Amino acid sequence: MRYRALLVAFLAICLSVLTACSEAPSATSSVPLTYDQIRNTGLANKCPQLSEMTRGSLALEDGKTYQLVGMCIEPTAYFVKEEASKRQEASYVPGKVLTRYTSSLDQVRGDITLESDGSLLFSETGGMDFQAITVQLPGGQQEPFLFTVKGLAALSQPGQGGLTTSTDFEGDYKVPSYRTSNFLDPKGRGLATGYDTAVALPGSGDSEYAEENMKSFDIGQGHISLRVSKIDGSTGEIGGTFEAEQPSDTDMGTAKPVDIKLQGVFYARLEEV
Fold first, then answer.
1. Can you give the three-state secondary structure of the chain, one letter per residue?
2. Each residue of 54-95: pLDDT tens digit?
3. Which range of residues forms the domain containing residue 232?
4. Which CATH number is 127's domain given?
5. C or N: which end of the chain has fewer Cβ atoms within 10 Å?
């Protein structure tokens, strides 16, 4: 009985430690975590979170230059558009992410411009703005895609004049190829290197192997909506939720892309340049 009580106490302590490590880091924490405290916990993949009680606004003055910096975009739910049958329309099916601890975008930055109608234009300029992710459908099919916000130009509703907890940004962005030009398929074929055709297979452009032989670097287009729900007026920090839709990988032009939908949270800071 004495050992059983000790075992129960030990398990309770372990559970509390694991629970604490799984929570997202606070954006207002005064004690930064060390590398050893973060390593192999998944915390590096989580965006800082503002308190639910944080409500405020950030006014932007005309003629001044502003930037959103330190933007972190963390997907928490994944959906893949799946064709059902000829009688039913295609619908989004929840997917399970297979990529560990490398699904969030971080240190994304961009300019904020106050337009003449009072709307705000966010133009992404750089940062760690892409991540290769793979999700698995309930039937076992796996869909790789490149989550990114490269070249994002997102516009808010007019009449804002600043950032508030009702500001929504919507815009399009580029989705580069999941594979690079130096990637080789199992037959040694690539876009910039490797064989032009597979050995012992016909190389004619009219053959059924043409799509596999002719590699391409496809650039698709995605759409994202960023909904600001929390603002700390004293620090310039903002947070909220997002929803994005973009195409999946085409295997360098040999496969038809499917639509991917992502939902999650984001964090950023507004700074005057």
1. CHHHHHHHHHHHHHHHHHHHHHCCCECCCCCCCCHHHHCCCCHHHCCCECCCCCCCEEECCCCCCEEEEEEEEEEEEEEEEECCECCECCEEEEEEECCCCCCCEEEEEEEEEECCCCCEEEEEEEEECEEEEEEECCCCCEEEEEEECEEEEEEECCCCCEEECCCEEEEEEEECCCCCCCCCCCCCECCCCCECCCCCCCCCCCCCCHHHHCCCCCCEEEEEEEEEEEEECCCCEEEEEEEEEEECCCCCCCCCCCEEEEEEEEEEEEEEC
2. 788 999 988 889 999 999 999 999 999 988 767 778 889 999
3. 64-179+217-272
4. 2.40.160.30
5. N
Question: Does residue 31 fall inside a structural domain?
Answer: no
Tokens of 250: 């085409």
256 within a domain of the structure (yes/no): yes
Query: Which tokens go with 8?
Result: 């129960």
Query: And the tokens for 249?
Result: 């990988």
Residues in the chain: 273
Q: Is the pTM of this model over 0.70?
A: yes
What amino acid occupies position 121? L
In the structure encoding, which two tokens stand for residue 141, read together? 């099919």
